[in-house]
Batch of 2 targets.
Target 1
Amino acid sequence: DTAVSQTPKYLVTQMGNDKSIKCEQNLGHDTMYWYKQDSKKFLKIMFSYNNKELIINETVPNRFSPKSPDKAHLNLHINSLELGDSAVYFCASSQEFRGEKKLFFGSGTQLSVL
Amino acid sequence: KQEVTQIPAALSVPEGENLVLNCSFTDSAIYNLQWFRQDPGKGLTSLLLIQSSQREQTSGRLNASLDKSSGRSTLYIAASQPGDSATYLCAVPSGGGSQGNLIFGKGTKLSVKP
C-alpha cells in the first residue's frame, strides 16, 4: 500500500550507459516530481508533470527526460550517464487542496555512476 | 531568487531535551512553509505545513512557528526521543504562490542519544 514507490532502490552503472528509474503513485495525485539530492544533501527540483504536461523544467541536461505513460507514473530516463549524475533521486507527488500542497516522497533511488 | 538556509547543520542532544531547529528564507513573500523529516535510505515525510497567514502549527511534540517578516521559521521538538533522529528539512514554494516547486534547505541532521 505504498503511496509513492520508485524502483530500483540502488542503481550502479558505468559511464555512458542509459538507465531509467520508475515511479508510481497510488494517491490519485495530479502532479508528480523528480528531485535530485546531491552529495551535500541539497535537494533540488528537476521536473514536475501535471496532467501529462511538463509544467516546470529546471536547468537540467537534456540527457535527462521524464516520461509519463499515465497520471500515476513518472519515469526518469537518463542517457549517456556521467560521473556527476551520481546522487539520490526522489520521486514525489502532490495534490493541492484548499491552498495546501503537501508532497509525498518515494524512498529514493541511489544512483552511482562508475 | 529564493534561498533557504538551515542552522545548525547537525545537532546532537541527550534524550529528553527540548530543542529548536532554525530555518531562514531570503524572500518573505512565501505562500507557505513545510517541514520534512528524512530518514536514512527513505524518502521525505511531511511533518507540518504552515500557511503564510498562520504563525504556528502543532503536531504532537512538534511545533513549527513562522515569522514571515523576518524570514524565519523554527521547529520545536519537545522531550526528544532517539526515534526523532533524522534529518529535518524546511522548504518553501518558489515564486510566492502555491504552485511553485519547493526550494529546500540543506537540512539539520539531528541525533538524539539514549
Note: Chain A touches chain B through 25 residues (CB under 8 Å).
Target 2
Amino acid sequence: QKEVEQNSGPLSVPEGAIASLNCTYSDRGSQSFFWYRQYSGKSPELIMFIYSNGDKEDGRFTAQLNKASQYVSLLIRDSQPSDSATYLCAVNSPAGNKLTFGGGTRVLVKP
Amino acid sequence: DTGVSQDPRHKITKRGQNVTFRCDPISEHNRLYWYRQTLGQGPEFLTYFQNEAQLEKSRLLSDRFSAERPKGSFSTLEIQRTEQGDSAMYLCASTSDGGADTQYFGPGTRLTVL
C-alpha cells in the first residue's frame, strides 16, 4: 500500500462545474496536509494546507480533512480551463521533516 | 523575486559525468529540502537540512549523491557518475521553523542524462 494514494485521473470536468479530488494516507500520526497544483513542466505550487478535521475554504477551493478515515479532499468550485493541471496531495511526516506525495490527479476542465 | 531559486534550470549531461545543482531558499527560511520527480509521479523526498545540518536522507540518496548547505543559506546537490535513471526534475523547497510547515518549491532543475 502506498503511503499517500490518489486517483491518477484524468478527471474531466465541464467549465463552471465542481471538481472533487480525493486522497488517502496511511500514517495516522500525520498532522498537516497540503494540496499543490502542478502545471506540465513546472514545479508544484501550494494551493492550500489543512491541519484540523473539517473544512477549510479559500476562494474557489475547499479542503476537507477526516483524520479518523485518513482522508483528505479538495473541491474546486466554478472550475475554469486554467484549473487544468495535476493536483498533488502531500502529507507531512509526524516529525515535520518531509512531505510524502501522492502520484497526483490530472484534472481537465473543458470549455 | 524573493521565492526559492534553482540553478541551472536545465542540464543535459552524458552518462558518467558529474553534475551539481544549486538552490537558494527564501531568505528567512532555515529548513531546506530536496526532492526528485520523475514523469507521471509525485515528488519523492531526498534530503532535509535545518540550517547547515543535514538531518535526514532518503534511501533514494545513493552514495553517488551528496548534498551540502555549508553556511545554512544556499544548498548544493551533486550527483557523481550520472546514470540514465538519474534523469528527473530535481526540486528544492524551503520553510521556516515554527511556521506552518508549508514548503515552497523552486522552479526545479530538469536533468537529462544521455
Note: The longest strand of chain A covers residues 85-92.
